[in-house]
Amino acid sequence: MTAETSQTLDRGLRVLKLLADTDHGLTVTELSNKLGVNRTVVYRLLATLEQHALVRRDLGGRARVGLGVLRLGRQVHPLVREAALPALRSLAEDIGATAHLTLVDGSDALAVAVVEPTWTDYHVAYRAGFRHPLDRGAAGRAILSARQATDSGHPGYTLTHGELEAGASGAAAPLVGVSGVEGSVGVVMLADAVPERVGPRVLDAAREVADALR
């Protein structure tokens, strides 16, 4: 800690990170041990975080992340969208297809940024706010592939045809190595099959977006 930082705020943020990393919550004693502070300090931290709905405690006394964190999380979308736009514009113009950034929203894939090419005679209409199940369409399937990837290597790109719209094909690659953000970058086009060069180009764009978000 330096003179310019707040020890209390630092501890509160560490509490949130610890709770975010567990599915079953943590007790005051467990938090006390992990933070290296006494239980009284932990009680005060939790009480403050509860007032802002960032933490909740169940009947057994275990602390968990509160719904207030979700409200903060919704504000992340505009920041992520802004960071991704340069790579999406380049991808759309290069491929001549509608490019999109898709993030996980519950059990759905949610398009949060869409860029259409400027020089094509026609392209697929795809709007920000469009959502679909994660197991349908290239964007969602790419995200699922990242979840299933092992330490042996990073997931590649995913190709689909006709899963979300008849006659449309898609290619997408997951965002890799971005803490707190689960999503993919892709394109959708009116074609029976995705041209060979599109998959690697989408993979490059996904890396560009991931780099911008780190």
Describe the fold and architecture.
The chain is α+β, with helices and mostly antiparallel strands and 214 residues long. It has two domains: 59 residues, Orthogonal Bundle (Arc Repressor Mutant, subunit A), CATH 1.10.10.10; 141 residues, Beta-Lactamase. 42% of the residues lie in helices and 21% in strands. It is built from seven helices and eight strands. The strands form two sheets. Strands 5-4-3-8-7-6 form a six-stranded antiparallel sheet. A two-stranded antiparallel sheet has the order 1-2. α2 crosses α3 and α5 packs antiparallel against α7. The two termini are 23 Å apart.
Kindly summarize this structure in a few lines:
With 214 residues, the protein is an alpha+beta fold.
What are the main properties of this structure?
8 strands; alpha+beta; single chain; 7 helices; 2 domains; DNA-binding transcription factor activity
Percentage of residues in DSSP E strands:
15-25%
CATH A-level architecture of the largest domain: 2-Layer Sandwich
Please report the distance between the alpha carbons of the first and last residues. 23 Å
Cα radius of gyration in angstroms: 21 Å
Q: What is the C-level CATH assignment of the largest domain?
A: Alpha Beta
Q: Low-confidence spans: pLDDT under 50, at least 5 residues?
A: none
What's the SSE blueprint?
Blueprint: H1 7-20, H2 28-35, H3 39-51, E1 55-57, E2 63-65, H4 68-74, H5 76-95, E3 98-105, E4 108-115, E5 131-133, H6 138-148, E6 158-161, E7 168-174, E8 183-190, H7 198-213
Antiparallel strand pairs: 1-2, 3-4, 3-8, 4-5, 6-7, 7-8
Pfam families: HTH_IclR (PF09339), IclR_C (PF01614)
Domain HTH iclR-type: 6-67
Keywords: DNA-binding, Transcription, Transcription regulation
